[in-house]
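Closing statement on the adenosine-5'-diphosphate sub-project.
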Amino acid sequence: MSDTQTPSGGPPDSFGLSPAQERDAKIDIENLAYRYQPRRRAEVAALEGVDLVVRRGEFISVVGPSGCGKSTLLRVIAGLQKPTTGQIRLLHEDRERPLVAPVFQEYSIFPWRTVEDNVRLGLDAAGVNRNEANSRVQKWVDRVGLAGFEKAYPGNLSGGMKQRVALARAFVVEPEILLMDEPFAALDAQLRKVLQEELLSIVREHQYTVFFVTHNLDEALLLSDRIALMSARPGRIRELIDVPFEHPRKPELRQDRQFVRMEEDLWSRLRGDVTVAAGGAQ
Ligand code: ADP
């Protein structure tokens, strides 16, 4: 069964897409604006006129200067914040699976629950029966390299292992869309590479649609099918760039001449906006 819905639960609208685009669209964002209205402070226009179609099964990364609204956009897609104006439509194809699962930079796992109890949270909430939940938890604990740590508490884990718990917790519910906000930003370079590779293989295997926020151009190039470049605040999608490298992609791809050239090119496109953002007030 397939269905469309807005993150806020309202009725979907027609977006005037062609039939082919319509079939392919997993996340459909039209003319979206988001403004923060902090108390006793001036309004902050975080996003303005954002248009984006993310295709089914696509890995899209969003890059842009700090403060341009990347996290805000992800949170709006997740339904955690409501657009000020404009619309978002998500295609929910399988009612047995949750539509979205977010992973954030900070580990956001519960210190008083063991690794396996953290991983199974979403399954308990969804009422998955005990045997099924046990086997899914074990599968994903193994898959992210946490076997043997099932009964450990987060306080006894390294940052990298905590982030593996957060990843397993998102994977275990087998969402249609993974929303990832700088999930590897707090990790050292080595571990980041290991988890990038694992993420790529899991995403390919399960054909997830992934919306990935990063400020790391090399990460965006290695992981994505397309990269959305955002302008300085108020953020809008400035450009969409196809990433042409074949799968499976290995870390050695970073040495490829075309990869290096694309990274330089991305940086030169972003540089002006990054300078503006660094000089402006947040
Ligand atoms: P990015 O993820 O690209 O760094 P964010 O989406 O976090 O950007 O923030 C976009 C803009 O909105 C920034 O200028 C930020 O300071 C502002 N902002 C974020 N959260 C709030 C908030 N709760 N209240 C007011 N302004 C906010």
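Residues 36, 38, 44, 46, 64, 66-72, 233, 282 surround adenosine-5'-diphosphate (CB under 6 Å). With this model delivered, the sub-project is considered complete and its resources will be redirected to Aim 3.
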